[in-house]
Write a structure and sequence with these properties.
CATH architecture: 3-Layer(aba) Sandwich
EC number: 2.7.1.15
Keywords: ATP-binding, Carbohydrate metabolism, Cytoplasm, Kinase, Magnesium, Metal-binding, Nucleotide-binding, Potassium, Transferase
Strand order of the largest sheet: 5-4-1-8-9-10-11-12-13
Largest sheet: 9 strands, mixed
Order of helices and strands: EEEHEHEEEHEHEHEHEEEHHH
Cofactor: Mg(2+)
Organism: Loktanella atrilutea
CATH topology: UDP-N-acetylmuramoyl-L-alanine:D-glutamate ligase
Structural class: alpha/beta
Pathway: Carbohydrate metabolism; D-ribose degradation; D-ribose 5-phosphate from beta-D-ribopyranose: step 2/2
CATH superfamily: Ribokinase
Helix content: 25-40%
Number of domains: 1
Oligomer: single chain
Length: 288
């Protein structure tokens, strides 16, 4: 089987800062690094490093060939990444001494993915494959509707959170992944708790408190793996990519979540985004 990911592609400019800047504050960074990133890219790389076959559907500008090349190097199929007349998306990320982050996004080409490239990709998808979407691109509703009609299983990471976008795709979902804040926002928007949304499987990630899975047999909690974080950027995307890869390989949900928890825990001990996502071999030697 395979994972088809309609996902963002960013250049991530990561600045190390002593603390998060306040309004009007000028703050000197103590370091800067440039990484391949974007929620969609991170998920594609994570799933590929978890041994899934991953096809990325997206767009870059003329300045984005390096990102496509990097995705290909990481084992992701890049045939369905369009070149458009927009700059490749960028993210400016501040990471403080505790590993917490603040992110500013410029969407660029991520908001200009042509419908034709989505349709071209979906023409190669097979019944039972996974379609993964999130909120850093256009075409989520179109993709979810098309994927469901084709017999694909549809997964959705509801970030950055937008209540209207979430409600538009809810009827088509098989798996919904939210963090704690997004789950609260969605409950406020719909009046429904995760278990009452009508989605077969809902996962709410809780950071250092682990994750909750709301499935056909009710709620199950998974404890986080204790580590000392240095950068939490991309940890949730790593978790989602690993969960999807596990499910695509036929693992039960609990097994997929447990492996994803290990991957996310190792991820937060590293500085960076897609370029430093762990693979299965890394997890074999990971002793928190």
């Amino acid at each position: 089987m395979a994972i088809w990911n309609l996902g963002s592609i960013n250049a991530d400019f990561v600045y190390a800062v002593p603390h998060m800047p306040g309004p009007g504050e000028t703050l000197a960074a103590t370091g800067r690094e440039i990484f391949l990133g974007g929620k969609g890219t991170n998920m594609s790389v994570a799933a590929a490093r978890a041994a899934a076959v991953v096809h990325h559907i997206g767009a870059v500008g003329d300045d984005g060939e390096w990102a496509v090349d990097r995705l290909m190097e990481y084992g992701v199929d890049t045939r369905f990444i369009a070149r458009v007349d927009e700059d490749t998306a960028q993210a400016v990320i501040a990471v403080d001494a505790n590993g917490e982050n603040m992110i500013i996004l410029f969407p660029g080409a991520n908001d200009a993915i042509p419908q034709a490239i989505l349709q071209e990709a979906m023409a190669e998808a097979e019944t039972g494959d996974w379609l993964l979407i999130q909120n850093e691109t256009n075409l989520q509703r179109t993709a979810a509707t098309l994927g469901k009609k084709m017999g694909l299983k549809v997964a959705y990471a509801a970030a950055p959170f937008d209540a209207d976008r979430v409600k538009a795709v809810l009827p088509h979902l098989d798996l919904l992944v939210l963090n704690r804040v997004e789950a609260d926002q969605l409950e406020f928007a719909t009046g429904e708790r995760p278990e009452a949304l009508g989605v077969r499987d809902v996962i709410v990630t809780l950071g250092a408190d682990g994750a909750d899975w709301f499935g056909p047999e009710g709620k199950r909690h998974f404890d986080a793996i204790p580590v000392t974080p240095v950068d939490t950027t991309g940890a949730g995307d790593t978790f989602t990519g690993y969960v999807l890869a596990g499910l695509d390989r036929g693992q039960p949900m609990a097994q997929a979540i447990n492996l994803a928890m290990r991957a996310a825990a190792l991820m937060v001990t590293r500085h960076g985004t897609a370029d430093v996502i762990p693979d299965l071999k890394d997890l074999e030697g990971f002793r928190p």
